[in-house]
Amino acid sequence: MGDVRARRDGDVDERGLSRFRSVPTIVVPYRGDAKRRLPAEIRAAAAVAMLGDVVEAALEVGTVVVVTDDPAVVPPGAEARRDPGGGLGAAVAAALAPVTEHTLVVNADLPAATPAAICALAAAGLALVEAADGTTNALSLPDPTLFEPLYGPGSAARFRAHAPFATVDVPQLVSDVDTVADLERLAPVLGPRTRALVAVHA
Fold first, then answer.
1. Per CATH, the architecture of 14-201 is what?
2. Contact status, residue 74 vs residue 24, Cβ threshold 8 Å
3. What pTM did the predictor assign?
């Protein structure tokens, strides 16, 4: 895993932002009950905070669609789309169904995400970001019809077997959050909402 840079704003390449600002649709799948390895007392608040940080970064790059079973938590500026149930793959497939242009799928538990990191994913063409455990944190789909619901353990390898996905090392998107230890490790680069939550519960 690459080193996550401590700066969130200073590494934004404005040329990259202008190139992609109106190009990708960014789908962010969100379920508030997904972070079951976090303590119960912060689980819901952490999920909402991380979603807010991901959406804030993504809105600097393109149109954001949050596919969720809880539209009340969708931040301003993003479109809410109903999660049909059936898991992460079904949720992403539903969000992608009406989309024909270049689309990114960025998971909601990536609170170190920055606009520059999302632009780097978009610039990679057909690409994915693999988490340390072999799952998939983000996808770049120039043709959304290439998506198949292949999530779960070892999903990055399944996506690569399905289509010629490049694997891109974007540190801010590799670093997902499943545990309190993850929050502590990423503390210097967390988005403002997640950083505030960690400070309150420290």
1. Alpha-Beta Complex (3.90)
2. no
3. 0.88
